[in-house]
């Protein structure tokens, strides 16, 4: 019974002889394709923060009158990511799949 456990957990001792070098196949180098992750949200220019900060301040002022609002960063949805998500949703609906989640969207960068 001990030999069974030794062969099961100590299989590197029974592996191929060490005097033969490992053969690695050589693959010709192809041009690497560059992929860039498409962000879900884009940061808004600080000069365009006025209207959203006024809306957020008015909402918080009605809820809690003694509050202070500081808007550090403002993001909007990326229209490119929205379009890809809608296309993926419609394709999944057409194939009849159940639920799915778009975790990341990548696009290929042209190197021309």
Low-confidence stretches: none
Q: How far from one another are the termini?
A: 64 Å
Give the number of DSSP strands.
4
Chain-averaged pLDDT: 77
- The share of residues in extended strands comes to 5-15%
Main structural class: alpha+beta
* Apparent shape: elongated
Number of helices: 3
The biggest beta sheet is recorded as: 2 strands, antiparallel
Taking all Cα atoms into account, the compactness measure Rg is 28 Å
Reading the helices and strands in chain order gives HEEHEHE
Q: What's the arrangement of strands in the largest beta sheet?
A: 1-4
Oligomer: single chain
Furnish the topology, listing elements before pairings:
Elements: H1 2-9, E1 34-38, E2 41-43, H2 50-63, E3 75-77, H3 79-95, E4 105-109
Antiparallel strand pairs: 1-4, 2-3
Structure notes:
This protein has 112 residues and is α+β, with helices and mostly antiparallel strands. Helices cover 35% and strands 14% of the residues. It is built from three helices and four strands; from the N terminus they run H-E-E-H-E-H-E. It has helices at residues 2-9, 50-63, 79-95; strands spanning 34-38, 41-43, 75-77, 105-109. The protein has a two-stranded antiparallel sheet. It is elongated, with a radius of gyration of 28 Å. The N and C termini lie far apart (64 Å).
